[in-house]
Write a structure and sequence with these properties.
By secondary structure, chain A is of the alpha/beta class. Chain A has helices spanning 11-23, 37-46, 64-73, 91-99, 112-119; strands at 3-7, 30-34, 50-55, 82-86, 104-107. In chain A, α1 (11-23) links the parallel β1 and β2 (30-34). By secondary structure, chain B is of the alpha+beta class. In chain B, a hairpin with a 4-residue loop joins β6 and β7. Classes of the chains: A alpha/beta, B alpha+beta.
């Protein structure tokens, strides 16, 4: 895998996810970070080689649901794997994320095993 | 240190709305949240006290809790907030646990604050998903640090935990009438 984009307003969580990807032996050349959905859209538009996106839902400026919807509006990004990594584990929020185009869902707190299981289908 | 299980119970409004969640249920869910979050991602913990009416000033001093807290606010099926308050060592326990650093060396105060906010975010998300979402639509704010206010919503209770080196207090408050903290 080339690049993974992590979208989360918490620097702590971005570090944790980076570490967990390594612990789960998820191969990727580089990690790209964004602090909210707006920056996430900018990174997707400007960075070549992003092959997977992990995004929080509860973020300022633009939340994860809106971010997913905006990503899917771009026809050339409709196949970009997009996994939500969030505290919002309720059925309604999960359903909303999937309906707007997310491919999967991981609830915080998480283990390396749960991250790997969610990403298994997208590992090259 | 006080420990008591008696507190306000739940009730049904009788007008078709979901039953109001009682304080006992809230505190039970809160403790399950701590178990889930801390055992998965942070550090060992031990419950050492329950304060049904919030942490009194005497206990704040005894537990060495700081003057700031991380808060997430709920609205909808439950209106209120969840607050996490730490002793200085408790803050470092959380930050070093989440980041898997020995004693979080070189971590800035902003870095520690960010870890505390993420911790309260995960605790609040668990409580929302398990206690509030089944009762109706509920929203959750992004976490924020704030000075502990002299007055805030009515406390549904607080639970204090000992971590590796420090202590933390987690409290759920209802956004009903403002009430001064117990002396």
């Amino acid at each position: 895998m080339n690049k993974v984009l992590i979208v989360d307003d918490s620097a702590t969580m971005r570090r944790i996810i980076t570490r967990v990807l390594r612990q789960a032996e998820i191969p990727c050349a580089a990690i790209v970070e964004a602090v909210n959905g707006i920056e996430g859209l900018q990174k997707i538009a400007s960075e070549e080689g992003i092959e997977l996106v992990l995004s929080d839902i509860n973020m300022p400026e633009m939340d994860g649901i809106d971010f997913v919807r905006r990503v899917r509006e771009h026809r050339d990004k409709d196949s970009l794997p997009l996994i939500m990594v969030t505290t919002e584990g309720g059925e309604a929020m999960t359903r909303s994320a999937l309906e707007h185009g997310a491919n999967g869902y991981v609830t915080k707190p998480f283990t390396p095993e749960s991250i790997r299981a969610a990403l298994e289908a997208y590992l090259g | 240190m006080a420990e008591s299980g008696s507190s306000a119970g739940g009730s049904s409004p009788g007008d078709g709305r979901a039953p109001v969640l009682g304080n006992d249920d809230l505190l039970a869910t809160l403790q399950r949240a701590v178990h889930d979050v801390f055992s998965t991602m942070i550090c060992r913990f031990e419950r050492i006290a329950i304060y049904p009416e919030g942490v009194p000033d005497s206990a704040v001093r005894a537990h060495r809790l700081g003057g700031r807290e991380a808060i997430c606010e709920f609205d909808g099926a439950f209106a209120g907030e969840l607050a996490l308050r730490c002793s200085p060592e408790g803050e470092r326990d959380i930050a070093s646990g989440l980041l898997m650093l020995a004693d979080a060396p070189g971590l800035s105060s902003e870095g520690i604050d960010d870890a505390i906010r993420e911790c309260v975010n995960m605790l609040s998300g668990f409580v929302k998903s398990h206690a509030f979402d089944p009762r109706g639509r509920c929203t959750l704010t992004v976490p924020a640090m704030a000075d502990v206010a002299s007055e805030h919503g009515a406390s549904a209770g607080a639970v204090v935990f000992r971590l590796d080196r420090g202590e933390i207090a987690i409290e759920i408050r209802r956004r009903e009438a403002k009430a001064a903290r117990a002396a």
